Amino acid sequence: MTIVPAIDLIDGKCVRLSKGDYSQCRTYSDSPVDMARRFQDAGLKRLHLVDLDGARSHHIVNLRTLEQIAAHTTLTIDFGGGVKSDTDISSAFSAGADMVTVGSLAVTDQELMSEWIGKYGPERLILGADARDGYISVNGWKEDSRLSLNAFINMYRQQGISHILCTDINRDGMLQGPSVGLYKDLLSKFPGIELIASGGVSCDEDLIDLSRAGLFEAIVGKAYYEGRISLDRLSELEQIL
Questions:
Q1: Is the Cβ–Cβ distance between 44 and 3 less than 8 Å?
Q2: Which is catalytic among the residues 78, 130, 168, 204?
Q3: How many CB atoms lie within 10 A of CB 214?
Q4: Which of 16, 123, 130, 218 could be a cystine partner for 197, CB 3.0 to 4.6 Å?
Q5: How far is CA 67 from CA 15, 59, 95, 96, 174, in A?
Q6: What is the rounded distance in angstroms from the CA atom of residue 22 to the CA atom of residue 43?
Q7: Catalytic: 130?
Q8: Exposed/middle/buried for 53, CB within 10 Å: 0-12, 13-18, 19+?
Q9: Local confidence pLDDT in tens for the 241 residues of the chain
Q10: Which pairing describes strands 2-10 and 217-220: parallel, antiparallel, or unpaired?
């Protein structure tokens, strides 16, 4: 299992929310580039970069930060947040994203998402399955759709998507442990998916549990920023999981 540190962006700064609530925002660094370099220096290879301003504004806002991180690190970056148009996704790839995570648009404009799968290939797209109580949430998690998590994954699995980033919104930023049971259920229902866990990781034992459950990747955010897991420990776990 690959450990993927996360950087969430608001006003070009590295922040974290709780349950996706913008009113519960804490800034951890004024320099996301320096933060990304720390991850690279620790031996980590991946980065999950989220434009929270973009998610709220319905278009990419922090493109410059993506460009800077891509230019100054060798991290493999997946980028999401505000990817709503052909211009957005093209700009993200041009700025250095290796993969793009698409969530809300995959719900609201399924035809365009299908076009992107055909144009860029399913291997370069990550399906952002942000769920609350079994249903997909959209637009920066401010709205709940009527589309179930299982139906959402099944729809795009049939189109070749294998990378699924599943966030349990009720656990995100709460440091209360990940939804291991949910992930096991998804892996049993959709064999062959490369499932990425997001939300709730609070300690190294959580990462071990996710690895044992068969997760492809696990995203770590607040647990690192709050000092629950050191970079040295993340690097060590990266080698053994």
A1: yes
A2: 130
A3: 12
A4: 218
A5: 18, 16, 5, 6, 30
A6: 31
A7: yes
A8: buried
A9: 999 999 999 999 999 887 777 888 899 999 999 999 999 999 999 999 999 999 888 899 999 999 999 999 999 999 999 999 999 999 999 999 999 999 989 999 999 999 999 999 999 999 999 888 889 987 656 667 789 999 999 999 999 999 999 988 877 666 789 999 999 999 999 999 999 999 889 999 999 999 999 999 999 999 999 999 999 999 999 999 8
A10: parallel
Q: Of the residues 8, 78, 168, 206, which is catalytic?
A: 8
Please state, in angstroms and rounded to a whole number, the distance separating the CA atoms of residues 138 and 107: 8
144 is known as an active-site residue? no
CA-to-CA distance for 61 and 3, rounded, in angstroms?
Answer: 26
Instruction: Compute φ and ψ for 33, nearest 5 degrees.
Output: -65, -45
